[in-house]
Amino acid sequence: MGRTVEILTGKAELCRSIMRALPDWFSEPEVIEASAQAIEELPVFGYIEADVVTALIALKPHLPDAVEIALIATRPEHHGRGAGRHLIDEAERFSHEAGARLLTVKTLAPRDREEPQFEATRRFYDRNGFIRAEVFAKLWHEDHPCLFMVKPLAGVQAGETTL
What we know:
Acyl_CoA_acyltransferase, GNAT family N-acetyltransferase, 7-stranded mixed β-sheet, GNAT_dom, acyltransferase activity, transferring groups other than amino-acyl groups, alpha+beta, globular
């Protein structure tokens, strides 16, 4: 059984290490480097098993009501062992503490090709309570349609509108 910790230093190198181990998801070096640089300024949490960070999540607060999962990735040999679920739990805890009512994520939308790794990613978010909200066909690139997913967070204060 592992534990979740906040990562305060070495965020970019950890990001590079995990993303490079996932070429089926992250094959473009410039995307890996941009992600590594971007998370340096974000809250990052890691899931640790046997003193190894097996997965990470970077969170980006938006306005007062939403937190975005800017990146979540698990080393391939640890897929399916619960690290992602623990990191989603941590994102929810962080979001609640920040006063957010929504947790959001952007991922690759279905395309007309066999991509089981991205279908597995979308199913992961489905299982964890995210709703497929909208597809932005050209947000990233015309060949990389973006699926925007939203998870309303429990515990909305009395008097607030629930989603």
